[in-house]
Amino acid sequence: MRFVREGIVVTPFPFSGATGEKPRPALVLASWSYAGDTDYLLCMIISQQADEPYIIALDIADIENGSLRRKSYLRPSYMFAVSERRISRKLGSLTSDKLELTIEIIKGILE
Fold first, then answer.
1. Considering the entire predicted model, what is its pTM?
2. pLDDT band for position 11 (50/70/90)?
3. Do the Cβ atoms of 5 and 94 come closer than 8 Å?
4. CA-CA distances (angstroms) from residue 75 to 25, 28, 34, 85?
5. Which structural domain, as residue segments, surrounds residue 104?
6. What is the pLDDT of residues 82-92, one digit of tens each?
7. 71 within a domain of the structure (yes/no)
8. What pLDDT is stored for residue 49 in this prediction?
9. Cα dist. 111→97, 101, 104, 105 in Å?
């Protein structure tokens, strides 16, 4: 496994309301082996604040060993699995405090 939990990576993200995809940053939440490869559960990072209750603002201090190009927001309600082959690179890592907050919000969404 090349990427670890809390890593921020770039991968093509599917559009939720249409066909197609766009390279976007995403947070690695989990990974597992599948069919001789590694799959990752990712959480979308967006550059505009969305009007939904689960958005988490990311500050410069929330990213370690790298950075995001612009003010960004984590969207824990938008997750998907992707093969390692579709991840192009790592941008940094999310701090443990923000990762814990993200996990708690995901648990709340699932309850």
1. 0.91
2. very high
3. no
4. 11, 12, 25, 23
5. 7-110
6. 999 999 999 99
7. yes
8. 83
9. 21, 16, 11, 10
